[in-house]
Every structure is written in structure tokens, then in C-alpha cells.
Design brief:
- The protein is α/β, with parallel strands linked by helices and 186 residues long.
- It contains six helices and seven strands, in the order E-H-E-E-E-H-E-E-H-E-H-H-H.
- It has one domain: Rossmann fold (3-Layer(aba) Sandwich), CATH 3.40.50.1470.
- Strands 2-3-4-1-5-7-6 form a seven-stranded mixed sheet, with helices on both faces.
- Strand 3 and strand 4 form a beta hairpin.
- The longest helix has 21 residues.
- Monomer.
- InterPro entries: Pept_tRNA_hydro, Pept_tRNA_hydro_CS, Pept_tRNA_hydro_sf.
- One of its GO terms (biological process) is rescue of stalled ribosome.
Length: 186
């Protein structure tokens, strides 16, 4: 089984915000693969199904961003999975809007959802897709910026990026993550 995890914050007030790009990818995959997110357990919203012969679990942690690791570790423990069986998708301020960076390990880079994930998994070694959302160019604080919605121009770009993230996840079901990294980085 492979687990695809999108980080974000639950609640309508956070829909469409920069911080919820991970949730956006999971919602798109749910629609594309006809895997309803209909199970509320392990502190998250889950959906399970088969894609290209691989059992897939889609996860949106409902713990709020800063506690994402609680849900992720609960799912891995319940299904007796390894950190190698997951990919975590999340926003990254240090990348320009729309740029993707796939990695198999690394630090949290200041991202509280990833800090929580590392703390709960006990390792920095797990597959991740960082989605660039850029930094504020005005006087907004970082928290205000990541909780803001994309501009109209950015929405068009991010819609394409969500689709590309979905394609990367689908490739991962059939190929080693290193191959997927080489194909989709940038």
C-alpha cells in the first residue's frame, strides 16, 4: 500500500489558501481516481482504492498543520507501513509559485507540518513533494501570507501544478521515487 498525504488545515476558511495546497492535490486525486475521502479516523480524512494495480490510501490530516505528524504516524502504525510507503505534499515559501521540488529526505526547513511529521516518524527520510508558493512581497507576515488565497493569475498556475503533482504521485505507484524525482523536479 502507498499513502499519499496532503498537508493543510481543515475548515472552509482555509480552502484555497497557500498553506492548503497539499489538500488541493489530495482532493484532485480523489476526483481523478474516484477514491472518496469518506473515512474519518486516525485524526484524518481518508480514502482507499486501487490505482494501476496498487492499493492507495489518500490522507488529509485534520489535526491542523502544526500537528500533522500525529495523523500520519497513526495511519502508518495502524496499517503497519514504513516511512518509505508515503509521500507528503506541502507548501514551500522558499520556492517560487508553481515550482516543484521532490526529495526523499531533508530537514523541515521551518515548515511546522514537516517538523511534526519528522518528530512523530522519528526520521527525516520520507518522500516529499514541496510546492512553491513564494514569499510575501508586501508587508504581510508569513502566517498571514500562507493563510491567504492565491491571486487570480496564481490560481491558474496552481491548478496546473496540482495536476502535475497528481501525475508525479501516479508515476510513484509504478516507479521508484528517485525516478519520479528525476522526471518531475523543477
Amino acid at each position: 500500500m502507498k499513502v499519499i498525504i496532503g498537508l493543510g488545515n481543515p475548515g472552509k476558511q482555509f480552502d484555497g489558501t497557500r498553506h492548503n495546497i497539499g489538500f488541493d492535490v489530495i482532493d484532485a486525486l480523489s476526483d481523478k481516481w474516484n477514491i472518496p475521502l469518506d473515512q474519518a479516523k486516525h485524526k484524518g480524512l481518508l480514502g482507499t482504492g486501487m490505482v494501476n494495480g496498487e492499493k492507495v490510501l489518500l490522507l488529509k490530516p485534520l489535526t491542523y498543520m502544526n500537528l500533522s505528524g500525529e495523523s500520519i504516524s497513526a495511519v502508518l502504525n495502524f496499517y503497519k507501513l514504513s516511512h518509505e510507503d508515503i509521500v507528503v505534499i506541502y507548501d514551500d515559501l522558499d520556492l517560487p509559485p508553481g515550482k516543484l521540488r521532490l526529495r526523499q529526505k531533508g530537514s523541515a526547513g521551518g515548515h511546522n507540518g514537516i517538523k511534526s511529521t519528522i518528530a512523530h516518524l522519528g526520521t527525516q527520510e520520507f518522500n516529499r513533494i514541496r510546492v512553491g508558493v513564494g514569499r510575501p512581497t508586501d508587508k504581510r507576515s508569513v502566517p498571514d501570507f500562507v493563510l491567504s488565497r492565491f491571486t487570480k493569475d496564481e490560481q491558474e498556475l496552481m491548478s496546473k501544478v496540482v495536476d502535475i503533482c497528481g501525475k508525479a504521485c501516479e508515476n510513484w505507484l509504478e516507479a521508484d521515487f528517485l525516478i519520479v524525482m528525476n522526471k518531475f523536479n523543477g
